[in-house]
């Protein structure tokens, strides 16, 4: 069986599937060995017991502090003892040989169907109570000993999941992930970006993938062509090995560009840097010929605990980045998280993408930001480190951020730490408000980098992580090109160095357009650097400028794409077959 999706990380891989649904916590669907079935039943009983204890304590505390009876908790307790739920779940474990988490999922689906049949709207609404109670048991299962976890996968597997949040992705043991297939997600979804950056083939937007794949079956993920094949035959598996060998060969060929300068055929020098999520991955930057790190997504340091890392741990991470890309610079983007990404979660917004995230969170959690900026001041004493604020919407936000930078310096000096003489601070231009006010930003701002992943979503009101909106999420939309053009002009007028660190920078065809529009620095996943370099070395800058000017006159993204393909074919062919496909 073949399911179609959107290929977001090129390459092909096959292996045993591990299936994960995403609820309050990731819910694994595992096939158990026969001798583990008894123990699994016990694990469920313990989680139920723990949940009952918690609910009874909540009920008693409420009664003590506020008086009165709280019938809703009694109702929840009854649900946890109801044989309809408990016995059925135990039976599912026994009969289907699946884990406790999955047995609860199966029973929840059955009970939802029962609730849906009820004619009384009040009773129908009780399904929310059921979800609440089951969510608690799932959390207790996940926290207990022997729970399956993304950090401890059973072996090298292909992950088939509803969705993986950025914090799931941070927890995941990527060394054991051969490939990823998600039902949700899109090309600019954070997990897709991470898979690309780590070179793990991935497909997103694969409808019904978790229902179609039984755990333990072999699946094939083809991230280049956007397919998930369930139980592929022997010829398809042999094809995987061949394709992997061809990809490796092409990779070797492109690696030959590593030591060559990033310069166009008519002598125009460009800077190519790397985007990095995990400090231990930073060696991939020099290995692919990147001149330093243009974007370190520091929030991955929050890790699976989803807690702010302390200043010393951060210092260590930032120093290790500097060391790995020496003598080139490192740009650390300050925390780009919302309250929903933390444990315990803060008050969340209905729409987190428009919520109290990044610098906005500094009003609620100033210490987290001051701690990060202190670590940056200290690490900056040892090498060319720069700080960048994400998600700013205009000059006032930047002024607040700069105030924190000054406070952090003072505190670090007071504590007796050596600090950088100067910490260059830049702005990630990804909210239209910032793009339109670049000329008004405080003069202390030393550089800017266009975050096109978010800029596109905010300009076009198209959620970057929703596969249904993929046709509306258009990096080549005339509005996007106009805004980039405007930002280039505003940056030039105040001699502000300007880069692009969104995914556009790593796609050869789009990277050439950006250069034609006047961008001189591109930051991308490390493996994209050789391809972009090959493409630009095969291009002339005067030609790129002409093509970009013509693109700015097009009314539709499709027309821009067609024009780029027609005019720049030779250059993108130099970047290899994958570039032609992925652009
Ligand atoms: C962007 O928005 O383009 C960007 C570089 O940051 P992220 O993808 O982490 O939001
Ligand atoms: Mg962004």
Write the topology of this structure:
Elements: E1 2-4, E2 6-9, E3 12-22, E4 26-29, H1 37-66, H2 71-81, H3 83-96, H4 100-117, H5 121-124, H6 127-143, E5 157-161, H7 166-171, E6 177-182, H8 190-198, E7 202-204, H9 209-212, E8 218-222, E9 227-230, H10 234-255, E10 271-276, H11 284-287, E11 293-297, H12 311-325, E12 330-333, H13 366-380, E13 385-389, H14 395-414, E14 424-429, H15 432-435, E15 447-450, H16 452-460, H17 478-493, E16 498-500, H18 508-516, E17 521-524, H19 529-537, H20 541-551, H21 557-574, H22 577-582
Parallel strand pairs: 3-5, 5-6, 6-7, 10-11, 10-17, 11-12, 12-13, 13-14, 14-15, 15-16, 16-17
Antiparallel strand pairs: 1-9, 2-7, 3-4, 3-8, 8-9
Helix pairs in contact: 1-2, 1-3, 1-6, 3-4, 4-6, 12-13, 13-14, 18-19, 18-20, 18-21, 19-21, 20-21
Please give a structural write-up.
It contains 22 helices and 17 strands. It is an alpha/beta fold and 583 residues long. The strands form two sheets. Strands 1, 2, 3, 4, 5, 6, 7, 8 and 9 form a nine-stranded mixed beta sheet that branches. Strand 8 (218-222) and strand 9 (227-230) form a beta hairpin. The longest helix has 30 residues, at 37-66. Residues 577-583 have low confidence and may be disordered. The chain binds phosphoenolpyruvate and magnesium ion (MG). Residues 193, 295, 297, 336, 430, 451-454, 501-502 line the site of phosphoenolpyruvate. Magnesium ion is lined by residues 390, 430, 451, 453-454.
């Amino acid at each position: 069986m073949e399911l179609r999706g959107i290929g977001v990380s090129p390459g092909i891989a096959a292996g045993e599937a591990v299936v994960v649904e995403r609820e309050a916590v990731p819910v694994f669907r595992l096939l158990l060995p026969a001798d583990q079935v008894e123990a699994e039943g016990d694990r469920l009983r313990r989680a139920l017991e723990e949940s009952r204890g918690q609910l009874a304590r909540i009920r008693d505390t409420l009664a003590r502090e506020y008086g009165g009876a709280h019938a809703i908790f009694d109702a929840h307790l009854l649900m946890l003892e109801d044989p309809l739920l408990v016995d059925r779940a135990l039976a599912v474990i026994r009969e289907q040989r699946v884990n406790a988490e999955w047995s609860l999922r199966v029973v929840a689906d059955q009970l939802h169907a029962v609730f849906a049949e009820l004619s009384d709207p009040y009773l129908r609404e009780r399904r929310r109570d059921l979800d609440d109670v089951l969510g608690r048991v799932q959390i207790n299962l996940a926290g207990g000993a022997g729970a399956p976890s993304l950090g401890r996968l059973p072996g090298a597997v292909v992950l088939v999941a509803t969705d993986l949040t950025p914090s799931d992705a941070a927890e995941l043991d990527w060394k054991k992930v051969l490939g990823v297939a998600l039902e949700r997600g899109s090309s600019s979804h954070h997990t897709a970006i991470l898979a690309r950056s780590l070179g793990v083939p991935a497909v997103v937007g694969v409808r019904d993938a978790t229902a179609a794949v039984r755990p333990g079956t072999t699946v094939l993920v083809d991230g280049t062509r956007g397919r998930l094949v369930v139980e592929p035959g022997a010829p398809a598996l042999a094809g995987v090995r061949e394709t992997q060998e061809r990809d490796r060969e092409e990779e070797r060929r492109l690696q030959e560009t590593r030591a060559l300068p990033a310069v166009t055929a008519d002598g125009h020098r460009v800077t190519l840097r790397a985007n990095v999520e995990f400090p231990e991955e930073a060696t991939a930057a020099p290995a692919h010929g990147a001149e330093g790190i243009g974007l370190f997504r520091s929030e991955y340091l929050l890790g699976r605990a989803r807690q702010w890392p302390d200043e010393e741990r951060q210092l260590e991470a930032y120093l290790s980045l500097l060391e790995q890309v020496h003598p080139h610079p490192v740009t650390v983007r300050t925390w780009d998280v919302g309250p929903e990404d933390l444990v315990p979660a803060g008050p969340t917004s209905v729409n987190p993408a428009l919520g109290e995230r990044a610098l906005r969170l500094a009003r609620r959690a100033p210490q987290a930001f001051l701690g990060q900026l202190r670590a940056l001041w200290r690490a900056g004493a040892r090498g060319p480190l720069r700080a960048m604020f994400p998600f700013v919407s205009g000059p006032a936000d930047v002024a607040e951020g700069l105030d924190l930078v000054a406070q952090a310096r003072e505190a670090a000096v007071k504590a007796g730490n050596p600090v950088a003489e100067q910490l260059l601070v830049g702005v990630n231009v990804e909210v239209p408000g910032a793009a339109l006010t670049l000329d008004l930003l405080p003069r202390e701002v030393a550089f800017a980098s266009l975050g096109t992943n978010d800029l596109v979503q905010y300009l076009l009101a198209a959620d970057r992580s929703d596969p249904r909106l993929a046709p509306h999420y258009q990096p080549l939309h005339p509005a996007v090109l106009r805004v980039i053009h405007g930002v280039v002009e505003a940056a030039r007028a105040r001699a502000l160095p300007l880069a692009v660190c969104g995914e556009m920078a790593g796609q050869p065809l789009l990277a050439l357009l950006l250069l034609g529009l006047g961008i001189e620095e591109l930051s991308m996943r490390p493996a994209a650097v050789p391809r972009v370099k090959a493409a630009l070395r095969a291009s002339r800058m005067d030609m790129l400028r002409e093509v970009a000017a013509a693109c700015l006159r097009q009314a539709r993204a499709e027309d821009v794409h067609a024009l780029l393909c027609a005019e720049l074919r030779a250059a993108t062919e130099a970047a290899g077959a994958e570039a032609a496909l992925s652009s």
